Write the structure tokens for this entry.
Amino acid sequence: MTEKFAVRAALSTTPAYVPGKPPQPVDGIESYKLSSNENHLPPLPGVPAAIAEAAQNPAHYADPAVTALTAKLSAHLDVPAERLLFSAGASEMLSALANITLEAGVEVVYPWPSFEMYPQIASLRGATHRRIGLTADFRHDLAVMADAITEDTRLVLLCSPNNPTGAAIRTPEFEEFMARVPRNIIVVLDEAYREFCTDAEAVDGLAALADHPNLVLVRTFSKAHGLAGLRVGYAIADPEIILELRKAVLPFSVTAPAQAAARESLARVSEVEVRAKQIALTRDELIAGLRAQGWDVPDSHGNYVWLPLHARSGDFEQACLAAGIAVRNLQDGVRISIGPDASMDRVLDIAAEFRSRFH
Ligand SMILES: Cc1ncc(COP(=O)(O)O)c(C=O)c1O
């Protein structure tokens, strides 16, 4: 409780989500926002028209059951509709998952560094954090995560590819981990960046569902589909978990324009996949360019690259800002989202200059 208002005690230790900063304008050059893992490509043809069409009469609520989009996704994934649930971005689904599992006195296990919402949703419910550091090569330390599970654990969060460090969880380590998790504990596999993944050994969440009824896949139209501003995410899970999640997502949270845009994007999913691979290629070129300068950069399977700069993260962020580029400073390192070619060239110039100053 604050001194002034009767709010829940858990809020006093809950951080507010810190979004990626916008770039500062710099005279004479274009600025780039590479701080939120957004898709920099123009909208898919057909999507703006679908949004405009669906926005004709904003006086009406959207279809609360998201019927047409659910049917389309069900057919696309070959997953029964009763296993699918939409939300306002994957963010709302993560929040709903915390709402159905967490409260004071129970524990949540998650990797770190990882998506910044994980500690936030845990703190908000007053749950105890079991935050497990990544391995030296920036992978989930699944053995230690399994060791951290106790009789009080109610939720496990996995992120593959991991935001911000980029590694994907591989099938054998995933299976070994799942074999150690009690079957009644919900394990979330956050696949927000799955379309950018080029690791042939990465776990296939959809295939894994068949063997693990306690597994929940969380996905989004924000990244590869480029619809972050419209807020469409979804979960794939056992129908019983979906029933509980239905109680926790807000009614009408996926607006009609958002549903229409996602339907249109799904109809063009092969184009989405081509674009995702194009972004993955640019990512690998950026990594190669940075390594050629001598940087120690881990492989990434998202639409971003991780520079483990530790104490120099702030200096690097400032160097980028001064050159018209906003990156994400996460203290342990800096995450650079993939952007247009010109922005990647500029990042390489900044990185080269930075190295010459500090090495
Ligand atoms: C790992 C991860 N999960 C989920 C999300 C949430 O995405 P959205 O709410 O836009 O669908 C993000 C967004 O950055 C993310 O990085």
User: Anything to note?
Assistant: The chain is about 40% helix and 15% strand. The longest strand covers residues 153-159. The chain has a mean pLDDT of 97. The chain has two domains: 9-43+270-358, 54-267.
